[in-house]
Specification:
By secondary structure, this protein is of the alpha+beta class. 49% of the residues lie in helices and 33% in strands. It is built from 4 helices and 5 strands; from the N terminus they run H-H-H-H-E-E-E-E-E. Strand 3 and strand 4 form a beta hairpin. It is elongated. The chain starts with a helix and ends with a strand.
């Protein structure tokens, strides 16, 4: 009886290790799949993303993401002004890091793939991160979600 349980536990652990390895390989493959296309896109648009100006950021966004910005552009600009007053002028950023992929079904549209990257950014008075979730629509990538984090706020 104990030998059977130990044998089952051994098989369970082997399967668990194989699943973890398969998951790691899957994440690496997905990351590489988007790296060549999305990192240059993010690099090209970083000056707009760290400009602290709503009117430079919204053209990069999906229509539904713009609704959030258009709803209260003054309060969003006020938030940008507050954040920029804490961290100061932009200094430098490092390469975007792949964070993950989600596939979501949106009724009436189809399946959409959301790809999330995190970009470490450094400002005169501190550092932070920008988390960018991108989606490909009409043949080009657009920002679905954008979040700024200042190190002081963590």
């Amino acid at each position: 009886m104990i030998k059977t349980l130990l044998k089952m536990l051994k098989h369970f652990l082997i399967i668990l290790v194989l699943l973890i390895i398969a998951g790691f390989i899957f994440v690496q493959v997905k990351s590489a799949e988007y790296q060549d296309e999305l990192v240059p896109y993010i690099d090209k648009n970083m000056k707009s993303l760290i400009s602290w100006q709503v009117e430079r950021i919204t053209p990069l966004m999906t229509k539904d993401a713009k609704v959030e910005f258009d709803f209260e552009p003054d309060s969003i600009q006020a938030g940008f002004n507050y954040l920029s007053s804490k961290v100061g002028p932009f200094d430098v950023y490092t390469e975007a890091e792949y964070m993950g992929t989600r596939v979501i079904y949106i009724a009436g549209l189809e399946f959409e793939t959301y790809i999330t990257y995190m970009v470490p950014v450094y400002f005169e008075n501190g550092d932070g991160d920008i988390t960018i979730t991108l989606v490909k629509r009409n043949g080009s990538y657009q920002i679905k979600h954008l979040k700024y984090y200042a190190a002081q706020d963590r």
